[in-house]
C-alpha cells in the first residue's frame, strides 16, 4: 500500500478545478454556434417571419424546447460532481413536458382529435425525425465530453439528462425549420425524436464515462 | 481530522502540493477502510479502498473546496461500493480458505447487520442463494442441492438478487452512506 500511495503522490500534477458555471457558458456557446450555423446555411423555414412567427404554435414550440433544454442541462451539469444527483432535474424535466403538452393542447381545441391520419402523416413524421435526431447529436457529443471529464455517480441518470438536454436543443434548432403548425403533430413526433436521442444517450454515455 | 482540514489539504493537492496530498491520502485510506469494513467482506476491503483512492486521484479536479469534503469522498466511496456489488455478480465465487484470518468481530457484526438488512429486502430464494454461494462460499451445485433449486435457477437468483442489491444501494440516500 505504501508503494501504491507513493505512486499516486509521484503522479500528482496541479489540476484545473472543475467550474460548472464555465461549463454552462461553453455549452451555451456551442449550442448557439450550432443554431447560427444551421440558420446561416439557409435551413430556416421560408415563411418564418411572415407566417410562422405570427402563430402561437411557433412560440409554444420554441419556449418548450428552450425551457426543457435549460432544465436538462442543469440536471446534467449539476450531476457531474460525485455528490450531485440528476434525479430532481429529471423529475422537473418530466413535469415540464406535461405542462407544455397541456399548454399545447390548449392552443387549438377546435380540431380536437379529428382527422388524425391527415394530421399525423407518417412520412412527415419520419422527415421530422431525420432532422431532429441528427441536430441533437452535436450537443450530445459536447455534453458527453463533459460527462466523461466529470465524475457522475449516477451514470444512467446523468446520461439520460444529457440526452434530454441535447434532444431539447435539437428541437429548439429545428423549430426554425419545422413547417408544421399543428400542435398535435408536434406533441406526437417531437417526443418520439426526444425519446430516440435520450435512449441513445442512456445506452452509450454510461459505457464511455465509467471511471 | 477536521472536515475543513481535509478540504484544505485537497485544495493544496489540487495545486500540486505533494506533502499535503500524501497526508490526505493516508487519512482518507483509514476512513475508507472503516467505510468498507462496514459494507464488504474483509477480503475485499483493501482492494475497494485502493480502487477508491485511484478514483479520487483521477477525479480530484471535481472537488470544489467551498463544499464539504466528506460528502464528496462518501459519494465516490459509495459509487465504488456499488461497483464492487456489481463485480460480485459478474465473477464466479471461490470458496473461502479454512484458515482465513479474521481480525475482529465488531466490524464483521456491523457488516453482517447491513448485509442482512439489504438481503431481507430480496425474495427469499434470492437471498438464500446469495447467502449460500457469495457469503458462505458454497458452490452453485451445492447450493442447488441444499435449496432444492436447479443449478440454473440458483445462478438466476444470484444474478437478479445482486442486481437488486445494487439497485437498493443506489436508491439509498447517499447522506446516510
What would you note in describing this structure?
The complex is a heterodimer of chains A (211) and B (177). Chain A has helices at residues 2-10, 20-40, 56-78, 87-107, 116-119, 122-149, 155-175, 183-208. Chain A has one domain (19-208). The model of chain A has no long low-confidence stretch (mean pLDDT 93). With 211 residues, chain A is mostly helical. In chain A, helix 3 packs antiparallel against helix 7 (155-175). In chain A, 73% of the residues lie in helices and 0% in strands. With 177 residues, chain B is an all-alpha fold. Chain B folds into 2 domains: 1-91, RNA polymerase sigma factor, region 2, helix turn helix motif (Rna Polymerase Sigma Factor, Chain: A), CATH 1.10.1740; 101-177, Arc Repressor Mutant, subunit A (Orthogonal Bundle), CATH 1.10.10.10. Helix content of chain B is 72%, strand content 0%. Chain B is built from 8 helices and no strands. The longest helix of chain B has 22 residues, at 69-90. The two termini of chain B are 19 Å apart. The model of chain B has no long low-confidence stretch (mean pLDDT 82).
Amino acid at each position: 500500500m505504501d508503494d501504491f500511495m507513493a505512486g499516486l503522490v509521484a503522479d500528482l500534477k496541479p489540476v484545473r478545478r472543475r467550474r460548472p458555471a464555465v461549463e454552462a457558458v461553453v455549452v451555451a456557446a456551442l449550442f448557439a454556434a450550432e443554431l447560427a450555423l444551421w440558420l446561416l446555411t439557409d435551413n430556416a423555414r421560408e415563411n418564418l417571419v411572415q407566417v410562422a412567427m405570427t402563430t402561437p404554435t411557433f412560440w409554444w414550440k420554441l419556449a418548450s424546447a428552450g425551457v426543457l433544454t435549460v432544465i436538462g442541462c442543469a440536471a446534467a451539469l449539476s450531476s457531474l460532481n460525485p455528490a450531485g444527483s440528476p434525479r430532481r432535474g429529471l423529475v422537473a424535466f418530466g413535469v415540464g413536458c406535461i405542462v407544455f403538452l397541456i399548454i399545447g393542447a390548449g392552443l387549438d381545441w377546435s380540431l380536437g382529435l379529428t382527422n388524425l391520419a391527415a394530421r399525423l402523416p407518417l412520412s412527415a413524421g419520419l422527415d421530422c425525425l431525420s432532422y431532429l435526431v441528427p441536430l441533437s447529436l452535436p450537443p450530445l457529443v459536447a455534453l458527453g465530453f463533459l460527462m466523461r471529464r466529470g465524475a457522475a455517480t449516477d451514470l444512467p441518470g446523468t446520461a439520460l439528462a444529457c440526452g434530454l438536454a441535447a434532444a431539447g436543443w435539437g428541437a429548439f434548432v429545428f423549430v426554425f425549420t419545422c413547417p408544421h403548425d399543428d400542435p398535435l403533430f408536434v406533441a406526437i413526433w417531437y417526443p418520439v425524436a426526444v425519446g430516440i436521442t435520450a435512449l441513445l444517450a442512456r445506452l452509450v454515455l454510461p459505457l464511455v464515462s465509467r471511471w | 481530522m477536521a472536515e475543513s482540514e481535509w478540504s484544505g489539504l485537497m485544495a493544496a493537492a489540487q495545486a500540486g502540493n505533494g506533502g499535503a496530498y500524501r497526508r490526505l491520502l493516508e487519512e482518507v485510506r483509514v476512513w475508507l477502510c472503516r467505510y468498507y469494513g462496514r459494507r464488504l467482506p474483509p477480503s475485499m476491503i483493501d482492494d475497494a479502498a485502493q480502487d477508491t483512492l485511484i478514483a479520487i486521484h483521477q477525479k480530484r479536479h471535481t472537488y470544489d473546496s467551498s463544499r464539504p469534503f466528506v460528502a464528496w469522498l462518501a459519494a465516490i466511496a459509495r459509487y465504488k461500493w456499488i461497483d464492487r456489488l456489481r463485480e460480485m455478480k459478474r465473477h464466479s465465487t471461490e470458496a473461502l480458505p479454512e484458515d482465513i484470518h479474521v481480525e475482529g468481530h465488531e466490524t464483521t457484526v456491523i457488516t453482517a447487520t447491513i448485509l442482512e438488512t439489504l438481503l431481507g429486502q430480496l425474495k427469499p430464494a434470492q437471498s438464500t442463494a446469495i447467502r449460500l454461494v457469495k457469503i458462505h462460499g458454497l458452490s452453485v451445485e451445492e447450493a442447488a442441492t441444499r435449496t432444492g433449486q436447479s443449478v440454473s435457477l440458483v445462478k438466476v437468483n444470484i444474478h437478479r438478487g445482486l442486481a437488486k442489491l445494487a439497485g437498493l444501494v443506489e436508491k439509498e440516500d447517499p447522506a446516510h452512506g
